[in-house]
Write a structure and sequence with these properties.
Elements: E1 3-4, E2 10-20, E3 23-33, E4 49-59, H1 61-65, H2 70-76
Antiparallel strand pairs: 1-2, 2-3, 3-4
Amino acid sequence: MVNVLPNGHLLVTGEKQIGVNQHVDVLRFSGTVDPRLMQAGNIVNSTQVANVRLESKGRGAQAEAQTVGWLTRFFFSFLPF
């Protein structure tokens, strides 16, 4: 839990990092939960999370290979398509 909203709902976040070889994938999750829906062990059904935001990022050789270089971005700024 990160914060309690004025209506009593909880702002929750989480992060998971998965490393394979020289590559790390990071998955970040956030959303709001009605505390009345929480089960024992602070468990809540994924269908009960509102305003969900997911962010996935990668670090390492694979992520760098998918990044557009500065020279390519420069030429893209002049192309209409």
